[in-house]
Amino acid sequence: MNKGYVWLVGAGPGDAGLITVKGLHCIQSADVIVYDRLVNPELIALRSDHCEIINVGKEHDYHPIPQEEINQILLRHAQAGKQVVRLKGGDPYVFGRGGEEAEVLAQHGIKFEIVPGISSSIGGLSYAGIPVTHRNHASSFHVVTGHTSQGNEQQNWKILAQLEGTLIILMGMTRLMDICQQLILYGKSPTTPAAVIMYASHSKQKSVTGTLETLAAKVEEKELHAPALIVVGDVVNLAETLSFSPTYLTLGELFPTLENSAEEAIS
Ligand code: SAH
């Protein structure tokens, strides 16, 4: 009997310690790990000795492996009876095409399971001192992409500009100036607080805060670029008070009993 199985696992936003316990178990049990660029290498290092790893790292405007081929890689290994982990940044179903990958598996009768992860669109903000909601500042949040796929309609900035909640824009950095201008054009105040967080929760995280009017120039000056989150709303003002220095534990420190400590396996 073919026992091939695919886990679509969320790796979390960057800090290795933010993987779930179940996700870590999948990594350690996998025969094959198919992973993206934003996945922390410390997590890959926790695989077993026999595990094959395949980097299908996707970058904006640079897709070394087309999605169709990624789907085929998953199918091929599952059909060969392997335990496959598809390790994706953040949560597998928040953008990043996890839904499409699962559909292909379902269409081919491959058994699969989703292991959710902490999405950069929620958890990532907290590492820059920004709570996604706050009783006094935002009673909803809205996560959108700034980069719609070819042929699709543009985002409806007119509607988005009218929302009171926190607006979080993924994949928007190449259009940052335009996005800020559209939101102002459709009625948001130019002084609305706004931030960009690059590499949220990674040790190389950098963020910039400003307003819809000033953000793009500040980001250019500080040379921030993708992967980054754009955050718009009053909660951004809390960053001054709520920023913290994260404790970065390696997985070897978090789980001293792991056979492969992350440091050993990476070196
Ligand atoms: N599934 C992922 C999102 C994939 S889409 C999640 O749940 O987080 C990829 C986009 O997500 C990037 O272009 C960027 O806008 C955002 N992103 C993902 N991880 C990030 C991080 N650590 N820091 C900043 N932005 C991140």
Automatic annotation (TrEMBL):
Q: Which CDD domains match?
A: SUMT
**What EC number(s) does its UniProt record assign?**
2.1.1.107
Q: Which SUPFAM superfamilies match?
A: Tetrapyrrole methylase
Q: Does the UniProt entry include the keyword Transferase?
A: yes
The annotated pathway is:
Cofactor biosynthesis; adenosylcobalamin biosynthesis; precorrin-2 from uroporphyrinogen III: step 1/1; Porphyrin-containing compound metabolism; siroheme biosynthesis; precorrin-2 from uroporphyrinogen III: step 1/1
Membrane-spanning parts: none
**A Pfam family assignment:** TP_methylase
Keyword Chloroplast attached: no
- Mention one GO biological process in which this protein takes part, according to its record: siroheme biosynthetic process
Q: PROSITE patterns given for it?
A: SUMT_1, SUMT_2
Assigned keywords, A-Z: Cobalamin biosynthesis, Lyase, Methyltransferase, Multifunctional enzyme, Oxidoreductase, Phosphoprotein, Porphyrin biosynthesis, S-adenosyl-L-methionine, Transferase
> Which InterPro entries does this chain map to?
4pyrrol_Mease, 4pyrrol_Methylase_sf, 4pyrrole_Mease_sub1, 4pyrrole_Mease_sub2, CobA/CysG_C, Siro_Cobalamin_biosynth, Uropor_MeTrfase_CS
User: What range(s) does the Tetrapyrrole methylase domain occupy?
Assistant: 6-216
A single MF term (Gene Ontology): oxidoreductase activity
Family in the record: Belongs to the precorrin methyltransferase family.
Entries under PANTHER family matching the protein:
S-ADENOSYL-L-METHIONINE-DEPENDENT UROPORPHYRINOGEN III METHYLTRANSFERASE, CHLOROPLASTIC (PTHR45790:SF3), SIROHEME SYNTHASE-RELATED (PTHR45790)
Question: What is the designated name of this protein?
Answer: uroporphyrinogen-III C-methyltransferase
Q: What organism, scientifically named, is this protein from?
A: Xenorhabdus budapestensis
